[in-house]
Amino acid sequence: MEYRILGQSDLSVSSIGMGCVTFGREVDPQSSLLIMDHAFEQGITLFDTAEAYAQGASERVVGEWIRSRNSRDKIVLATKISGLLTGHRIVASAEASLKRLQTDRIDLLQTHVWDESTPLEETLGALTALVQQGKVRHIGCSNYSAPQLTAALELSNTAGFSRLVSVQPPYNLVQRDIEADLLPLCAAENIGVISYSPLAAGFLTGKYRHGAAIPSGTRFDVIPGHREIYFTEHGYQVLEKLDAESRATGKSHVQLALSWVLNQPGITSVLIGARNMGHIDQAIGSSTKKP
After folding, report:
1. Is 107 helix (H, G, I), strand (E, B) or coil?
2. 94-128 pLDDT per residue, tens
3. Measured between alpha carbons, how far is 107 from 87 in angstroms, rounded to an integer?
4. What is the signed CA dihedral for 54, 52, 45, 33, rounded to 10 degrees?
5. How confident is the model at residue 76 (pLDDT cuts 50, 70, 90)?
6. CB 189: neighbour CB atoms within 10 A?
7. What is the DSSP string of 150-163?
8. Which pLDDT tens digit goes with each residue over 220-245?
9. Which of 3, 53, 144, 236 is catalytic?
10. Is-contact 263 291, C-beta < 8 A?
11. Are 110 and 139 in contact (CB under 8 A)?
């Protein structure tokens, strides 16, 4: 496992991060604790959750793991604020997250999405106040475009707000638009990149086929929201190339897709989701094997 400094922060994060979206949703609390144990034992130290994950259940499960394992000082804890990013909402959200996570500080507090309706000054001002109070060590953002990240960085420079140290975008063999402008911006500004969805929400596992019915009980059956991103001609063309590579190398679709993301330049850490311990081992193995 590699460890890298996240942007201009003092946070050292594992090159593979534990995305905690499944905990309290697809995975029951007790199984979630055991999966986090295994992730930590394998060297994963970045644990990323959000208030929106299972309506706070993910944060509660992560908080119980931190408390019961006495692991708070051994990990980098990241979470996200959803919805409106008004000053009042940010403070209330952070306080609620701290309570669910059973801690007095969040290492990386991220805005989950861009908020068009709230002035950026108000959002950054409230986040900066949390940093000054010691409740948050660093701030970041998720799902920001390059222009949105640029606007936040410029305002921080001119107004003296805390600077965003990281961005969290989706990135995989199908969804590669960040290569055009976001990754170059992050390289120029020394912004850490924590990417997510390396398997394209499961599309790249090989279980979905052009023209075939979506298998019952799979993620795209239960949560169909991302179908329009991946179930496209481009998506199926990528899948066909992955099929050929899998046949040629004897490696699974998952190994190839994960390995590709984990070895891309400019990526600080890749978040993986897990429903069992084997998913952790699969990712660890892929990190040492270039496609």
Report:
1. strand
2. 999 999 999 999 999 999 999 999 999 999 999 99
3. 19
4. -20
5. very high
6. 15
7. HHHHHHHHHH-PPP
8. 645 666 677 888 899 999 999 999 99
9. 53
10. yes
11. yes
160: amino acid identity, one letter? G
Distance CA 164, CA 142 (A): 11
CB-side neighbour CA atoms (13 Å) of 112? 17
The CA–CA distances, whole Å, from 116 to 26, 144, 181, 207 equal: 31, 12, 21, 37
Mean per-residue pLDDT, 67-87 = 97
H helices present in 190-286, as ranges: 219-222, 227-230, 233-249, 253-262, 277-286
CA triple 151-152-154, angle to 5 deg: 65
* Residue 208 annotated as catalytic: no
Q: Report pLDDT for 290.
A: 52
- Give the span between the Cα atoms of 229 and 212, in whole angstroms: 17
In 3D space, the residue among 71, 5, 54, 17 whose CA is nearest the CA of residue 280 turns out to be: 17
Does residue 34 have a pLDDT over 80?
yes
CA distances from 99 to 130, 135, 276 (A): 15, 12, 27
Q: Are strands 16-19 and 12-14 parallel, antiparallel or unpaired?
A: unpaired
CATH-assigned architecture of domain 3-200+261-286: Alpha-Beta Barrel (3.20)
Give 214's Cβ-side CA count (13 Å radius): 13
Q: How far is CA 262 from CA 13, 19, 207, 256, 267, in A?
A: 14, 15, 22, 10, 8
**Domain segments of the chain: what residues?**
3-200+261-286
Identity of the amino acid at 62:
V
